[in-house]
Every structure is written in structure tokens, then in C-alpha cells.
Write a structure and sequence with these properties.
Pathway: Pyrimidine metabolism; UMP biosynthesis via de novo pathway; (S)-dihydroorotate from bicarbonate: step 2/3. This protein is of the alpha/beta class. Helix content is 37%, strand content 14%. The protein is built from twelve helices and nine strands. The strands form two sheets. It has a five-stranded parallel beta sheet with strand order 7-6-5-8-9. Strands 2-1-3-4 form a four-stranded parallel beta sheet. The chain binds phosphoric acid mono(formamide)ester (CP).
Length: 318
């Protein structure tokens, strides 16, 4: 079976295929009757070992809109609390004959570990600071649609400069977006305080900045990320005020970027820390709610495409 553990495992044409497949679900999701029976009879398990609003709900909605039976396993109420290992949990889910398993876990590599143990496709809903592939795919789709609305419909982001600013060190969203945006041709700038920038990230082809104003200069897209304080145990945590002063996106700061630059944020947002409310809510520039909308369509496309082999429908090569 084929899994979705990271953008790093996808070819450019596979990324574009998933974006194209999602378009039909964007349309379906805008209708009153949003039901389709592509996945009727399948069982999808969402196993979330970390908190989530957008990813969990959109995977659940995606599976249900496609007619599957969707079951959510919340780690806090599971036998993980009684000491069960991740591998034993995976074997248990497998024995229940799930047709797809969606995993969010605090450890980088947890999704791959489970994918190697089970018989069905595994989809990574975020593993530690490693990858969050469906987030990067939905971000690319939201960006592609926003550019199309402005009269620039293109699969190719060549010539586009995207500045990603925030806690890059702990961000699986930054890593997946770097890989995805680069695969689609964009130039990616990463900006963070020195302590929150991964060592060696420049080797992945990113332009590295610590000065936010410099990172913003001429950028076409600005993607803001929150401080992941839950991953900073024992580490110096900047105060919200200090962080906002240096790295918060304000209206004034946004003027350094290209005129009409688009603003993105994967959520959850900390308004007044990494992004000001008047920027997050800019009707003509912020595509944050569009990102959420695209999340459902992308997850429908991923569930559909990854289960095609088991359904006897022509899909991806193994
Ligand atoms: N963007 C994102 O992954 O949000 P959640 O943590 O709410 O799922």
C-alpha cells in the first residue's frame, strides 16, 4: 500500500495530481448536498495523540462526505494512557481492519513506524517537528486558487517568493511547506530568531533570515507560524511582547512585502503575538479561512487516492 508520510516522499507530478484531484471536492463542498459514495463501506480511523481542531475535524468531515465510516481515537481516552506502546496500538488498529489510518503524534517518524506495521494506507496528520503533508498540500491549493482569482492561474509557482516566519525549529508545517513550495518552483525564505532556526536548514535550499523586515522585502506571500511552546521544555521562551516586537506581522510591517502580498497562517493563531488581528482579517489579502476550506478538499483527495488500490480503482503506483 501507498502511504502519505511526508511531502519529501512525493514527486512534483504527484503533488500536482493531488491538488487537481481536490478541485472536484472543492466544488462538491460548496453544494448543499455534499455527499458522495466513493469510500462507502470503508472504515477510516483517525488516531490523534496530540490536540487538533482543523486537521482532526477536516479528516473526519472528509471521510464522512465520501461515505466512509469514520472513527476517532483520542489518545487521552485510549489505552495509551495505560502504557500501551505505539506499535501495539498500531497492531490493534490493524486487527480491526481499518481501510486507512490517519495519525497525529508528538514524535517525528511515528507515522512511518505505524505505516511499516499495518496493511492499509497511513496518512500523516503531523508527526513531531517532521512533516504535516496535508497542511502543505492545502496551503498550495489555497495559494493556487487565490492566484487564479487574481487572474494568474498556474500550477507553477516559479517567480513567487514565499516568506515563512515563526518557530521554524519546531515546525512540521514549515518543513512540509518548504518541500512542497520548492517542488512547485517557489523561492522560500525562512525567518526565525536564531534559537528557533534549525541548524543546516539552508542546505535544503531555503534562504535564511533572522531580520523579519529583510525577509519580508518584496515577498509575494507571507506565511506566519506560532511559537510552539509545548515543544520548548527547558528552552528559553521569548515573551509574547518581545516576540511580537521583532517577529509579529503588523500592517506597517506588511508594507515591506510586495504590494498585495497574500497572508497565510495554518492556525491555530495567537493574535497579537505572531500576527495582528487587522492583518489576519484583511479581506483582500488574508487567505487564512480559505486554507481551512481547502483542508477538507485536500483530505478528501488524499483519502480517495490512497484507498484506490484497495478499492480496485486505478490509482498511484506502489
Ligand atoms: N493547522 C493545524 O494543523 O491545525 P490543528 O492543530 O488545529 O489541526
Amino acid at each position: 500500500h501507498r502511504d502519505l508520510t511526508g511531502i519529501g516522499r512525493l514527486e512534483r507530478h504527484e503533488i500536482l495530481f493531488l491538488l487537481d484531484e481536490a478541485e472536484q471536492w472543492v466544488e462538491l463542498n460548496r453544494r448543499r448536498n455534499k455527499h458522495h459514495d466513493a469510500l462507502a463501506g470503508l472504515t477510516i480511523i483517525n488516531a490523534f495523540f496530540e490536540n487538533s481542531t482543523r486537521t482532526l475535524l477536516s479528516f473526519e468531515i472528509a471521510g464522512k462526505r465520501l461515505g466512509a465510516d469514520v472513527v476517532n481515537m483520542h489518545a487521552a481516552q485510549s489505552s495509551v494512557k495505560k502504557g500501551e506502546t505505539l506499535i501495539d496500538t498500531a497492531i490493534t488498529l490493524n486487527a480491526m481492519r481499518a481501510d486507512a489510518i490517519v495519525i497525529r503524534h508528538a514524535s517525528s517518524g511515528a507515522t512511518q513506524l505505524i505505516a511499516d506495521k499495518v496493511d492499509c494506507p497511513v496518512l500523516n496528520a503531523g508527526d513531531g517537528s517532521h512533516e504535516h503533508p496535508t497542511q502543505a498540500l492545502l496551503d498550495a491549493l489555497a495559494l493556487r486558487e487565490a492566484l487564479a482569482d487574481r487572474g494568474d492561474p498556474s500550477d507553477d509557482f516559479t517567480g513567487l517568493t514565499v516568506t515563512i516566519c515563526g518557530d521554524i525549529l519546531h515546525s512540521r508545517v514549515a518543513r512540509s511547506n518548504l518541500l512542497c513550495l520548492q517542488a512547485l518552483g517557489a523561492t522560500v525564505r525562512l525567518c526565525a530568531p536564531p534559537a528557533l532556526m534549525p541548524v543546516g536548514i539552508a542546505a535544503m535550499g531555503a534562504e535564511v533570515f533572522h531580520d523579519f523586515d529583510a525577509a519580508l522585502r518584496g515577498a509575494d506571500v507571507v506565511m506566519m507560524l506560532r511559537l510552539q511552546t509545548e515543544r520548548m521544555e527547558g528552552q528559553f521562551i521569548p515573551s509574547a511582547r518581545e516576540y511580537h516586537h521583532l517577529y509579529g506581522l503588523t500592517r506597517e510591517r506588511l508594507d515591506n512585502a510586495a504590494p498585495d502580498a497574500l497572508v497565510m497562517h495554518p492556525g491555530p493563531m495567537n493574535r497579537g503575538v505572531e500576527i495582528d488581528s487587522d492583518v489576519a482579517d484583511m479581506i483582500d489579502r488574508s487567505i487564512i479561512t480559505r486554507q481551512v476550506e481547502m483542508g477538507v478538499a485536500i483530505r478528501m483527495a488524499c483519502l480517495d487516492v490512497l484507498t484506490r488500490g484497495a478499492r480496485g480503482v486505478e490509482g498511484w503506483a506502489e
